[in-house]
Design goal:
This protein is α/β, with parallel strands linked by helices. The chain has 14 helices and 11 strands. Helix 8 links the parallel strand 8 and strand 9. The structure holds ligand TUI.
Length: 316
């Protein structure tokens, strides 16, 4: 048995403890249903959606899979309260949250039978989430793409594992079986992958975005937006250079926002990978092909077995 600790698979009713990150403007019903059908937990990103649009995405996902799936609510989104209400009324099996503290919503979600899995960037927030009734936490290190915290996966996962007894899912810097084994070694019992799922056939992100990822190195993802309080990791391009210039000369928040706003939509939907925000994690360097989601799962399982043989684990 590859995954001895079955707490995550049992909690969600899935085959493999592998979650797909809820990536705003990208993770739609096509990607989420493909991941759930492959045995993981597909996640619809509600980040940029209205409640009506999210309802459509949930319905389309249910047409494409009979398996459990999740919705990610980005807590900086102005309509987060309405999205939470919709998730409750639609009886979505799992909610993951990001970019904030979902404390105020936990009891409402739990009463509706929704499993609540907050993304945390510190051990302190993980403890608070456990006390507030979270079913599991996702410890996301700053290798990740998009909005990030300050601590690496290598340091964050064991720090979280040591202070909570709910399952810990590792995220940030994981894209293959080697990364999965590393996460399990740190004490996680599941993983969440974002960047790897960008380069899949079922991912509807613009082709230019996938192509930029395929030719990127681990040095390309850079952090901008520290002055806004919401740092973001994205592949360096004309946009990140403009944002860095504003930050270097101590420009204002408003000036920064003027350039940054709409950046992810421009890259993900319009394919403007020069002046759009191509959010991706540092592990982009090992993502070298576009393949079906089912093949991502098959390859990860093979890589896990290969890794265990190499390091003297029990498999094979
Ligand atoms: O949320 C993400 N990744 C994202 S959200 C996003 S959209 C966006 N665009 C521009 C600016 C900001 C967001 C793109 N990528 N990942 C989950 C995540 N959550 N990473 C870090 C955190 C986090 C950070 C601090 C969660 C909680 C937290 O604590 C807040 C508190 O109140 O203690």
């Amino acid at each position: 048995m590859i995954f001895k600790d079955q707490r995550v698979t049992e909690l969600f009713g899935i085959e493999y403890p592998i979650l797909q990150g809820g990536m705003a403007w990208i993770s739609d019903h096509e990607l989420a249903s493909a991941v759930s059908n492959a045995g993981g937990l597909g996640v619809i990103a509600a980040g940029n959606l209205s409640p009506e649009e999210l309802e459509m995405e949930i319905e389309k996902t249910r047409e494409l899979t009979s398996r459990p799936f999740g919705v990610n609510v980005m807590l900086l989104s102005p309509n987060a309260p309405e999205l939470i209400d919709l998730v409750c009324s639609k009886r979505v099996p799992v909610v993951t949250t990001g970019a904030g503290n979902p404390g105020p919503y936990i009891s409402k979600l739990k009463s509706a039978g929704v499993r609540v899995v907050p993304v945390v960037a510190s051990a302190g927030l993980a403890r608070r989430m456990e006390k507030a009734g979270a079913d599991a936490v996702i410890a996301e290190g700053m290798e990740a793409g998009g909005h990030i915290g300050k601590v690496t996966t290598m340091a964050l996962v064991p720090a979280v594992v040591d202070v909570v007894s709910i399952p810990v899912i590792a995220a940030g810097g994981i894209a293959d079986g080697r990364g999965v084994i590393a996460a399990l070694a740190l004490g996680a019992c599941g993983v969440q992958l974002g960047t790897r799922f960008l380069c899949t056939e079922e991912c509807t992100v613009h082709l230019n975005y996938k192509e930029k990822l395929l030719s990127s190195s681990e040095l390309d993802p850079v952090i901008t937006g520290t002055i806004t309080g919401h740092p973001v990791r994205a592949l360096r391009n004309s946009l990140t250079r403009k944002l860095e210039e504003v930050e270097r000369r101590g420009g204002t928040f408003e000036e920064f926002e003027m350039i940054a706003v709409g950046g992810l939509r421009r890259a993900a939907k319009e394919g403007d990978v020069k002046d759009g925000s191509v959010m991706a994690g540092q592990i982009c360097a090992i993502v070298r092909d576009v393949k079906p989601v089912s093949k991502v799962f098959k390859d990860i399982i093979n890589e896990i077995e290969e890794t265990l043989r190499r390091i003297g684990g029990v498999e094979g």
